[in-house]
Amino acid sequence: MLFKQQVLLRQKLFVLGSLAIGSLLYLVARVGSLDRLQPLCPIDGRFGPRSQDEIPLRALQFKRGLLHEFRKGNATKEQIRLHNLAQQLPKAIIIGVRKGGTRALLEMLNLHPAVVKASQEIHFFDNDENYAKGIEWYRKKMPFSYPHQITIEKSPAYFITEEVPERIYKMNSSIKLLIIVREPTTRAISDYTQVLEGKERKNKTYYKFEKLAIDPNTCEVNTKYKAVRTSIYTKHLERWLKYFPIEQFHIVDGDRLITEPLPELQLVEKFLNLPPRISQYNLYFNATRGFYCLRFNIVFNKCLAGSKGRIHPEVDTSVITKLRKFFHPFNQKFYQITGRTFNWP
């Protein structure tokens, strides 16, 4: 009889313990939704004196789960007003470069509790049809955020589209602009690889990279090939500098973001005048995927889509050498303009 009572008691304790642990994990997931659990200080003096409406970072972290609900369209106007939320125009834009790591950069910056990201590429400034819809259409594409959060969007086509610098300048002449670059030849091959994969998915054939990158008539680099043109960074940057001073740009090393992301993210935090909040805790190397994944809290982790980190096709070494020689003078000028040097061959 005593033995049966002990068994029943242990079973009850086990059930109660399981319920307690389940409740704790649920609370952790809600409170730390899309963010990590660690002590956070209020926004410091770099943001200037705190206004009456300003929300400290601890509160931003606590309420970030609410933003997810509002993004799903579940909020009423009264709830939006009550929580002092708004769809704000971006204060920073990742303008490029395609296949430089723009998605990885945006997702990693979203680890910061004072950053809110637009989940999709808006293509407002590079698409005439979208641009004709007006700035209010663009603003309504932005996520809900608190007054002192920074909204960031990314559309890599902005960097190479001629009309975009003037259009962004007309919206906000003091906006901060992020450009993430990789070694130009590697970036061009990555660009080709993405297009190739899309063709293969549709059972279509496609030229080899060598045939596209090298003009068969002159045996020189084919500057009409878009993947090559995009990698001439200085050519595009000079067009942007007609509207914005170099101080409004920050250049991110896309190659280093893959292998050693934290120092690059800390530089971006500083550029955006954000208090340092992203730490090594938030980044862990996934050996299976071969790159870093994101840890928002003890419950929620995230890796980039499986399409990231595609295996590049083998390219003739003589073509790679020719491309690197071609890009070299443009790279030197890029270093000079930006004040940042890269270990590109």
TrEMBL record:
Range of residues in the leader sequence: none
Domain Sulfotransferase: 90-334
Keyword Repeat annotated: no
InterPro entries, per the entry: NST/OST (IPR037359), P-loop_NTPase (IPR027417), Sulfotransferase_dom (IPR000863)
Location of the active site: K99 (for sulfotransferase activity)
EC annotation from Swiss-Prot or TrEMBL: 2.8.2.-
Spans traversing the lipid bilayer: 12-29
Tree of life domain: Eukaryota
Entry's family note: Belongs to the sulfotransferase 1 family.
PANTHER family: HEPARAN SULFATE GLUCOSAMINE 3-O-SULFOTRANSFERASE 5, HEPARAN SULFATE SULFOTRANSFERASE
This protein's name: Sulfotransferase
